[in-house]
Amino acid sequence: MSIFGMWFGMGLGLGFGLGLSMGGFAHAQQVSDYDQAQSVELAGQAAQALRQGDRDEARALYKRALLRNPDNFDARFSLAHLYLQTGDLLSAEKEARRTHSSQPSDLSEILLGQALIGLGRAEEALEVVSLSAASEAARVDKLDLRAGALMLLERFEEAGAVYQEALSLAPEHKPARLGLAQVAIAQNQPLEAQDRIDELLSIAPDFAPAWLLKGRNALAQGLRRAAFRYLDRAIALDPGEVDAYVERARAHLLAGAIAQAEQDAQLVRSVAPGSPVTLFLEASILFAKEDFQRADATYSRIASTFDDYAPALLLGGLIKAERGDLAQAEGMLFRYTKQHPSHDVALRALSEIRLRDDRPMAALEALAPLLSANPPDRQALRLAARADVLQGARERAAARFQQLADLPGEGREEAGEALAMALGDDAAWRILSVRERLAMGLERQAEEDILALEKMPGQEAAALTLRADLAAREGNDGRARSLLERVLREAPAYLPAHEAMALLERAQGADPQPRLQSALERSDYAPPLVRLAVRQFLNAGQPEAALAVTRQAWERHPQSGLLGRLMLELSLGGQNQQAAIETARRLARQARDPLGGPDFLAQQEAIKALAGLGAWPELAQLGTELIESGQNSVDLWLWRARAQLIIGAMGDFEQGLREALAAAPQQRIADQVAHWALARGDAGLMTEAAQARSPRDALQAAVFTAQARALSGDLNAALAALDALIARYPSEPAPVQAKAALLTRAGDNESAGDALRRAFQRVPEDARLLLAFTAHQITAGRFTEARDVLRAQLRKTPDAPALLNNLALALSGLGDGEALDYAQKAYRLAPSSAAIADSYGWLLAQEAGQEAGQEDALAQALDVLAKAHAAAPTSGAIAYHYGAVLAQAGQSDKARGVLALALRVDPDFAESGKAQALLASLGAAQ
Fold first, then answer.
1. What percent of the chain has pLDDT over 70?
2. Model-level pTM?
3. How far is CA 96 from each of CA 17, 110, 113, 124, 797, rounded to the nearest angstrom?
4. pLDDT in tens, 773-821
5. Residue 20 pLDDT exceeds 50
6. Closest C-alpha among 742, 698, 747 to residue 723
7. Contacts of residue 384, Cβ cutoff 8 Å, sequence gap at least 6
8. What are phi and psi of 272, to 5 degrees?
9. Cα atoms in the 13 Å half-sphere on the side-chain side of 267
10. Contact, 347 vs 380, CB < 8 A?
């Protein structure tokens, strides 16, 4: 895929829905009466053909009518409008201009303005379309058109004001309502846009442009399933809506479905042959296929006629950059950013071109709008860090790498490595500099850095490896191999040389195994080299070789946590459950850190693996062994407690909780004890949890004490104590949440909801209260209120996974088709959250159950729910969802076990009645 990424389809609207009348033109008497009559008749036939959907015939008839009478303004106006609808913008502009110059009117002025905006000539459109109008309806249409021009110029506040003025004159005017939604999208307010679109659709449910914009908005939020549904709806309502086909093709390209995009391109071509939109879409598809030569040729056809067509300027710049014509690429992208000064893809591409030209300051100038955003653009940060390295600005580069490492998502490991090099010694910084220069194709400057590195003591291996990389980039593979072989003879464990050699071998189709095996033996199976060898063997499709090497290395270095984790990963990947269990147990017992103590990272990996495999008896036994050996890790106590609970060792479980409180009286253990005590109604255990939290956390200790009074039977006293805490600590969520939990336990859901609502209204910025309140409303079936509260908050923090998750649940309760898309987005942002994975898997299974042929979706739902259950095995709700989907998939035996577990570990969860009924329906185990 291109290093510049993919972009297309901004502001490609060809129609504004103005409902233009075709009458009102006087006819000059410059031709015979017969020709006038023939012209009128031909224009009538053209209008009939247009009503029947035959645009080609209509176009031909209008042209014949104008041959008979060039002054048939109705025919010329209609022809210009037809050109506009079919995307022939140049012809539309020509005919509209002739119409307007011959007989100026509001209609001809609006039509010419439409054509100019379609061509991206917004400034000219503002000059042509005046504010004076013969009627209020024409003024509204002109305001709408001027607002569209302001949108193209990214003068969004002004555009919004003009749309509002249009609505003040015509409150039901659909294009202006749609325009305000477009303003919200442009200002990065997708939920505001969604509300405006939904409001418009409630008034005009068959308005195709609204469905198109709804699809475009969903796509901008990453909600592809919903986007396809909305775009399909727009096309069904108006099969001639070119923009909808273009947008659907864009969605297919973003999903990597090039064949489907080509089908839509064919449909666009049939509606608007030869239009810039058609050519633009064809060039975009060729660009996605990395056929840059043909993409360039197609782009040239656009540029030869539509030099200022803004989307083509951007695409042309990206194509020219891929073809190595950096000067032309920079010129096009610079012109584009003058029209769209905050467009992320254009700014990143412009920056990368300038970096390739060794102009880091100019690159940083282009990135400035993206770096000032909060949070900053990840790719822009990476490019800015590269610019800092090229300038030698070490501290600033380190700060940017730190920002990258702190951002969620992919690339954190790479950023961490670069950060370590930036903060390291001069040699490490020099190595990083060479790498960045080589990545940008700055070979001469990289050569200078390598010469400087060669003069530093102890850096011979690094300099030779980088010189080999330079030789490979210049196409001299023989020299690259010779240099790397020299490094590996002199420093057989030098990892970067092995990595470089592996890349070279892979490019040449060679088998890396013999060389790596020899290097492993010479280095006594050094763990980092083993990890590299394993990666190379797996890439070469040799899993058995990877397993054999790791096993041999682990026997030589039995206390290496790195090797143990590799062994565990390979055992899990090989679907050998018993081998994985034994590996996990050995890893947890044997792995040691550099100081000789337990390797807690390796231990955690082993414990999570046992939990994921469902090896609860083994985990309970391992936990006991490790605790008796003197380990006092909170996580260890908690995992052992979970294991004991799951296998039904209730006495051991409760005794283990008490021992944990005594041995490690920390917050997480106390909270786990309190949760269990509340579920079981055990006032004594709740009191012990309160004592564990006191005196370090007086508030939480007081909350637990109040709950203990409720469990002892004095609910009123408990509620009074919690009310006193709420009054004393009005900004703390714990007392309110505890009060709501007690009221819910007592069956008073209404009062519980009121308590949470009042607390949330008092401290609306507290995310914990917001989540607790909306979760309660969802459980109580108040989906609309939860949805509205969540959408309001998501306008401020649009990528908060927990908020997106709750919104998905609220929408699901309302039967809204976007529920699954929001759940999927939350899961992409936080895949390790058990609650979020549970929501996504459950909604995915529900959708799969509603449609035939959804076996893949059901399998995906099972996979997601299995991970959620492994991460939170004592959650009754998650276990119930997993068991229900297992039953849906026909895995009744496994479903019975999971459902029984749900009722054992969490007997009073909200859906426990459904779990009992489902378990009864599955009958006894066979």
1. 94
2. 0.70
3. 17, 9, 9, 14, 45
4. 899 889 889 999 999 999 988 888 888 889 999 999 999 999 888 899 9
5. no
6. 742
7. 351, 363, 364, 367, 371, 400
8. -135, 70
9. 18
10. yes
Q: Which residues pair with 592 in a beta bridge?
A: 560, 598
Query: Do 321 and 4 form a contact (C-beta atoms < 8 A)?
Result: yes
pLDDT confidence of residue 601 = 81
For 414, other C-beta atoms within 10 Å of its C-beta total 13
Supply angle C-alpha 720, 722, 725, rounded to 5. 115
Residue count of the chain, please give it.
926
CB 837 within 8 A of CB 864: yes
pLDDT-based confidence at residue 11 (cuts at 50, 70, 90): very low
Q: How far does CA 151 lie from the centroid of its chain?
A: 26
With a CB cutoff of 8 Å and minimum separation 6, the contacts of 347 are 337, 366, 367, 369, 370, 380
In the structure encoding, which two tokens stand for residue 425, read together? 């010694």
Give the residue among 762, 788, 792, 786 at the shortest CA–CA distance from 773: 786
- Three-class DSSP category at 712: coil
Indicate the angle between helix axes 650-663 and 683-693, nearest 10 degrees.
20
Report the distance separating Cα 410 and Cα 841, nearest Å. Answer: 22
pLDDT given at position 377: 83
Span 288-300, average pLDDT: 88
Helix axes 136-152, 156-169, angle to 10 degrees: 170
Sequence letter at residue 351: S
**pLDDT tens by residue, 271-286:** 777 677 788 888 889 9
Residues sharing a CB contact under 8 Å with residue 514, sequence separation 6 or more, in sequence order: none
Tokens, residue 354: 């300038």
Whether 892 shows a pLDDT value over 80: the answer reads yes
- Cβ–Cβ < 8 Å for 318, 131: no
Residue 110: which residues within 8 A CB-CB, separation 6 or more? 18, 20, 129, 138, 141, 142, 145
